[in-house]
Structures are given as C-alpha cells and as structure tokens.
Amino acid sequence: MSVNGVQPHRGAETPATQVLDAIVVGAGLGGIYQLYRLLKDGLKVRAFEAADGVGGVWYWNRYPGARVDSHFPHYQFWFSKELWDETDWSETFPAQPEIEHYVNHVVDKFDLRRHITFNTRVTSAHFDEKSGTWQITTDTGEVVLARFVVFNTGGLSEPKIPPFPGHETFAGASCHTSHWPKEGIDLAGKRVAVIGTAATGIQVIQTIAPIVARLTVFQRTPNYAVPIKNPKITPTDLKWMRDSFDELKEKALWSRGGFVFPDPPMFKDVPESQRDDHLRKIWASGNLSIWGNTFADFQINPEANAYVTNFVRERIGERIKDPALAKKLIPSDYAFGTRRVPLENGYFESFSRDNVTLVDLREEPITAIDTTGVNTKAKHYDADVIIYATGFDSGVGSINRIDIRGIGGRSLRDLWGRDLRTTVGMQVHGFPNLFMTMAPFAPAAAICNVPVCIDQQCDWIADAIGFVRSRGLKSIQPSAQTEEAWMTHHRAVSEPTLLGQNKNSWYRREGPDGTKRELIAYLGGIPTYRRACDEMKASGYRGFELT
Fold first, then answer.
1. CA angle at 167 for the pair 414 and 223, rounded to the nearest 5°
2. Full-prediction pTM beyond 0.70?
3. What CATH number should be reported for the domain holding residue 492?
4. Domain residue limits at 43
5. Contacts with 383 (C-beta within 8 Å, 6 or more apart), sequence order
6. Is residue 443 situated within a structural domain?
7. pLDDT in tens, 60-119
8. 200 in a domain, yes or no?
9. C-beta of residue 529 within 8 angstroms of C-beta of residue 535
C-alpha cells in the first residue's frame, strides 16, 4: 500500500546485539522532528511506526470533514526556513489530505523515510541497569537495544470506545473516527448514527448531514463551538508568511498558546460600553482567538469569563430557532473555555434539517447496540453505519499501551495508575534516558498549538541527550525531589484557573471507573514553561541524576 504515491519502507533488520544511540517511537509530527534533530546531531537512530505511513493523527484521522483548527500559518514545522519557503498552503485551515501530503514532503525532503520502520508497533521497553540500555521489543518479534528512547506517540492516538453491550453484533459498518478506512465509507443515502459531539463529532456531523438519509446524533455533553472562516490562501499571503518567518517564529515560540495574537486587555480596562464590540470583532475573526485572546484574565476572573460565556451563548442561540433544541445544544452547566473549544461551519444549523435527530444521552442513555442499531433507555434507533466520535485516552493512553519498565523492573503503567507524574512532561523519575513528548503536565499535553510545543520539547530532549553524550555520562533522569517540585508548580499554576476547576473536562485524566482525576493540562503558559526548561538546561541539569 502506498501513501501519497510513496511505497512504505519497513526498515533494515537490526540485530539485538547492536546498540543504537536512540530509538524514536512514532512518526507523527513529534516523531518526525525528533528523528530529524537526533540524526542532525550525528546519532544512530531508528524510528518505529505502527502505520504504513507517516503523519500520526493526520494519517489515522481520515473521517469526513477532518481538518486542523490551528490557522495559517501556525500549523507547520518551525525548524527550517527553507521548508517554509517552498510550502504552498491552499486554505487557512487545511484539511487532512493536505496536511498528510505536507508531512510526507517533509519526510522525503530530509531523507527520513529510510530510518523509519513501518507497520511495526513497539510492545515493550525495558531498561537494563547493567548495560545502561533500553531493550525495545516490537510486535514483529524484533529486539533492538538503544541508550536513549523517545516516545513521540502523541496525545490523541489511543481511541476510547465505550463498551456498549452488543456492539460487536452490529451488522452494519462501524468505526472510531481515528480508524477511518483509507477507502472511506459510503454514507450517501445511509442511516448513520454518530456517538459524540466534541471537536471530531462536530466536524463529522456538519459534513455528512447533507448527504445521509438519516442522521442520529447521540450527545452526552453539549459543546460550545466557534464559527470557522476558511478563506483560500493567496500568493500575497504566502509571501507574507515567508517574509515574516523569523518574527512569527519568535512570537509563536514565546506566545501563551502557540499562536501569534495581539496581547489582550484586562477585563476591567475595557469600558462596559465597548465590551460587546470588542468580542464581536474577535468572534468575526473565525478562529480560536475568542477562546484564548479575549481578555488577559479570562481564565482567572469569573466576571470576565461569565461575560464571554454569555456572549457566546447568545451568538449560538441566534442560529438555533427551536427553543427546545437550543436548550439541548447550548451548554448551561459549565463556562465557555473550560472545555476544549471546537471550530464549526454550519454545525448548529445541521440539527434544523429534517433528516437529523438529536438524542440527549442525559435523558435517554445508551443501553446496548444490536445488529440493527442503537438502543437507548427510551427507544431503538436504526442505523446502517455507526461512527464513534468518542475521543481518546488523552495524554497517557498511547504510552500506557506499551510495557515500559525502568530501574528495578518498575512498571510505568503501574506507577501512573497509582500516581500520575512527570518532570516538565518529558521525563519520569526511575526511568533513565527515557523521554516523551505531549505527555501530561506540559503545554503540549493539551493547551498548545502542537507544532510550536513539539518544536520546543524535541529540542530540549535532543539537547539533554547531547549533554549526556558530550560529557561521557551514561544516563540522565530527574530526581524524585525535582519531579515533586514540578508537580507542585503544575498544580499551583493550573488548578486555580477556571479551566482547572472544571472537574469534568477532557483535560482531566479519566480513571478506570470513569471518574475524572488529575488535570493533565499545564496552564502556566508556554513562556513560563519554556523558561523552566531553559533554566534546567542552563544549570547543567541541576536536580537531575546524572551517572
């Protein structure tokens, strides 16, 4: 099978007796840049990828309507000006095929594909204290040794499918949005059930509503959503992007969320008579600025948050003519911005179509799935296709899938089951020379434009590895004290925010019993986080155990 016309490469067999410098797990955006950076530094590196192509989330998520919600020009790699100069984007919010094509171009431009072993899933990583190496085992039976291992497995790569009784008996087509088949699913004229109304569900619903015979949407929690404006990118836009590279990069890497927005005012500094106009201008921009750039104290000032929340509710309400439907679709029990904010294009209008039915799972929860459709407490809904837009085991799922054992055979999965913790979201005490990106308690875990955050994380990891190698050391890991200090800092800057106080948010880890636990999102902002990471590096990694 080919990806954008390129035949996948399984990679050369590496005997277990050979010790590589580093193993990179995953070939999404993080894995690609990590591989590039480590190779550039002269390391012997090999990457493993479960799919037959690169792209990570942009490989797996091919569902109808899939597109990025970070606007042009922010969602792309920042490490190469040359790459920027030769990249032509077609629209402000590119769709999945364009991003996948871009990622493949990056891999081939920098000759990375030959270093990636595709169709291979890492199943275990065990640290050998005597040799100071990690033993990596794959589902093909291959065993590889490496001094360093970096898990770039992504925060949204382990799908959650609720274990509805009877789901395996359904006679029609069914899949999670993250495993949409390459050949697609013919939905035209079909009866389709969509379970879930978060960001992915919104994209699917608004896209397929006009083409299906009947669409039944099962909603557990109503969602705020912001209208998207997606104009085509002109040659003038591209020239501005290229000419502004240095300025944009500096601003993005030190921005609060990875976007170049103007600094917002404090709520009190905007006269009451001007607040509505202020928000209307931001709303009209058609991007996520209404979430992150309204008022500087939006996430800590209840009055500011309430004002924005009421504004958003009014704007959504203007588009829903049926009061009963509006009551179901407009959130009333949590504030705007305290959950993930999706972008939409006609989502709310979709429910006014004659062929669309909204099922409120708070009124009639799903009890079972059978051969012909979905059963709730109230009735049966026929379906030819069931689409699970039910989200992911965020932050930890993709890493916990792998049997990772550190010093003394200590299991990372067991540790995190008892006490989820990291140091700056990139290392864990007791696991020397093991690194990760997009893990809990860093901006990249949730609240960040991904390319900006992975750029910083991959560079920090590469620099730490370079520090160990250049000084003839064997390993690096945070001390228990350093790890506890980071967790204390994380709680201090994150929990007091209004988002942090939302106990039922995607940004909290969900336990086995369905209850919400730790807040995995770091809410101190990118500048605070970068300074903390930079200080660790500048100090010679004081507070880390170096052997």
1. 75
2. yes
3. 3.50.50.60
4. 19-158+395-546
5. 170, 172, 191, 192, 193, 216, 372, 373, 374
6. yes
7. 999 999 999 999 999 999 999 999 999 999 999 999 999 999 999 999 999 999 999 999
8. no
9. no
